[in-house]
Amino acid sequence: MHDLQELIDNNARWADAIKQEDPEFFAKLARQQTPEFLWIGCSDARVPANEIVGMLPGDLFVHRNVANVVLHTDLNCLSVIQYAVDVLKVKHILVTGHYGCGGVRASMQDRQLGLIDGWLRSIRDLYYENRVALSQLATEEEQVDRLCELNVIQQVATLLIPASFRTPGIVGRACRCMAASTASRMAAGRVSTRPSAALSSCRRSTVCAHRTDLGRLIVGVADNEA
Known about the structure:
Layout: H1 4-21, H2 25-31, E1 37-42, H3 49-52, E2 60-65, H4 75-86, E3 92-98, H5 102-107, H6 116-119, H7 121-129, H8 131-135, H9 140-159, E4 176-177, E5 179-181, E6 191-192, E7 205-212, E8 215-223
Parallel strand pairs: 1-2, 1-3, 5-7
Antiparallel strand pairs: 3-8, 4-8, 6-7, 7-8
């Protein structure tokens, strides 16, 4: 059990360690924010964006919500995307899910959880559309993991629909989805990009499966470069 003072003390130690390694780090960070990537990921506490890709603060612009959902009715997410593209000039948008996602698992269950039910509706619909294929998988864990993959594909596809983003700089700007193959999972912490036929519905898209000792990721990439 951690208390608030412990968090404050940990922050002080972390800041001191960073300054010992690079005395100008925080001064440089304060002057400019120039990330090349927008990370749209899950709120799960086990999936810290910067740490798991080995990047420092300032290298990723991050938006997180339950089950890494992209909705055209979510003003929070839309505002983040618009700011990232138009102001920060990010080159890539990463939709990052993870296997064993609690939000995805909840979407498969026939029970009410409260306000979160409305948020998970699009994933519930995705589960219903794919329920026959998912039922062919041997275990519940395999079904959950496959739906986690389908969810990332769905959210990347949403990013590729210009009508979903009626904001300056995004409409008419073609996002090229650099596919993702979730076909293989590697234990060495490296990203796999083997093409998967299951992604044929997401044009020029790829899904990446990433596995570490702390968890497995599914990454869909929308490339914003011309």
